[in-house]
Specification:
199 residues, mainly alpha, Rna Polymerase Sigma Factor, Chain: A, 12 helices
Amino acid sequence: MDHALALPARRITDLLSSGLPARAKSKRQAMDQPRSDPDQELVKRTQAGDASAFDDLVVKYTPRLYGLVYNMTSNHEDTNDLLQDIFAKAYKAIRGFRGKSSFYTWIHSIAVNMTLNFLKKRGRRFQLSLDDVDASIQNDKEFMEATATSSPVREADLSELQRRLNEAMMKLSDDHRAKLPGRISEKSCLVTGAKNGRV
């Protein structure tokens, strides 16, 4: 044992007796308390009939839910339509929300279930046109600016990469696509030119 790194026995005893049990006790007490949902006040106001409180929830969670639904559908129009339906269903059902989970957990499950039902109903997994998926991206101003300086070789490489990624995503089951994160790695962003690590 290296004596230069060893603490004296008395110092260790002092450290162990200096408030660690109190800190552990407070952690245990905190764990026993019900978790507070930061959206609880907005949910209560919505349940009482305040539509502006629900508007705040929509603004807060639209980006997260958009990423989730888009990862499952790979189509901007379908994603926008589904988000409207998801928030409409949540608004109608919010009086039944009991707070046993966080609001986001509740609306996330609504989003996943509605999107899976949409995909099953439409059979989108096998009928999705990759040209339709890419059409709205090509009309995006930021996308056009980012790709305006690219070379033909880079374009061919990116096109091949996009094609392979789309093929791989479409081979996943709907349930597996639902679990994909809404973020991609920084290295992938550099390759594809994506902004802020978003898919």
